[in-house]
Amino acid sequence: MNKPLISSPIPLDDLHSSTLDAGNIVALPASVFSSDEFFQFEMNAVWRHEWFCVGHVGEVPNVGDYYTIQVGKDPLVVLHDRDDKIAVLANVCQHRGMILVEGRGNLRRLRCPLHAWTYDLGGKLIAAPGLSDGDAADQAAIAGICIPRIRTEIWEGFIFITFDETLAPVGERLGRLGEQLRAYNMGALRGADPLHLEEMAWNWKIFNDECYHCMYLHSSSWGDMYALNRGETLDEAVEFNDLDKGVISYNLCSTHRDAAPTHTKSILQPPMTGLDDRQRSQLSYVTVAPNLLIVAMPDKVKYFLWLPLEAQKSLYAVSWMYPETTLAREDFRENFEREIKDLRPVMDEDLYAWSSCQKGYNSGFAARGPLAPEEEVIKRLQTWLVRRYVAEEGRVLAARQVAE
Ligand code: FES
Ligand SMILES: [Fe+2]
């Protein structure tokens, strides 16, 4: 993959005040969320040098199952290959650039719609009309052509990719978190519905989760279903936190077992087996930077996933994952739909707020307000991000010095 050398258009010294290393921590500047130039720099700083999640193995259970995603300008396809591995390939024909597949489905091979170049599920070109059946020179011209395969690893059922071949394995980064969440058995859970990535008109960082807003934006939606008291229900000192590894979390703690934000104030599906009393009375929100939010609940694990497209455009999906035994219950769908209905106002409020923040960030009046004590999550995420920006600036300077 080609990676242009780009310096930050914002002096990085200006961002220090948004990190935990500063005294009074303020929000990141609006241009970090709105500028096309900064987005190009950030694509290198974060998305070309980190592991990030692109879904869960349950999305592609059978050989040939696939779904498509996009990261920045790069269309990719996630598929279950013939070696029973998850492969993430560039979704770009190596002949003249046509996108190979759209949406999701099942394939025996990848066949380009334009001139029928055909690749096996590992990405190797196996037929090219007029060339693979041509003379020796034609055959030599296509020998060794393969669709680029992106480095992929599975962590607790989640599919992670990186464009950086030098990074340590994702399991090394997230191993401790895997242990801590072991009771939820996330690798064996399955989504109630296929993952559906939707295009949103705001910067990917606006999805960064915190619960300062829950008590206000969601006071009469979520707040009517799940008690939210400042300082009592919100615990940001949870042991999952590991800033260096990009693991940033908080718990919402309830006084009763199996509490959940539903019309009954409790879970609507059976609790998962193997959870202890504490896990049965809390919701754990774990962000794995840059783009995965895991919400571990007594009856399920939800995950929220987002990918960058442009400075002010992103893809977003939510998946509700359950044990197979829950999914097989006769009353599953009815309860599931009821819970979605209960949460609809909360989701609508979030969508409204995210779109509104992007509008504000585009205004000349956007400011860098001080962060409240209940925004510890945002302080940590900002710190993680600024460290990535500083590292990239260092790489750019080093590369320029070598070139001189
Ligand atoms: S562009 Fe794909 S076969 Fe020609
Ligand atoms: Fe929210």
Task: Write out key terms for the chains shown.
single chain, 404 residues, alpha+beta, Rieske Iron-sulfur Protein, eight-stranded antiparallel sheet, seven-stranded antiparallel sheet, globular, binds fe (ii) ion
Number of helices: 9
Distance between the termini: 23 Å
User: Can you identify the CATH class of the domain at 204-383?
Assistant: Alpha Beta
Q: Report the CATH topology name of the domain at 204-383.
A: Naphthalene 1,2-dioxygenase Alpha Subunit, Chain A, domain 1
Described by the principal axes of the CA atoms, the overall outline is globular
- State the major sheet: 8 strands, antiparallel
Number-wise, the strands total: 18
Order of helices and strands: HHEEEEEEEEHEEHEEHEEHEEEEHHH
Sheet/helix structural class: alpha+beta
Strand percentage: 15-25%
Give the rounded overall mean pLDDT.
95
Give the cofactors and ligands: FE2/S2 (inorganic) cluster, fe (ii) ion
Radius of gyration: 23 Å
Low-confidence stretches: none
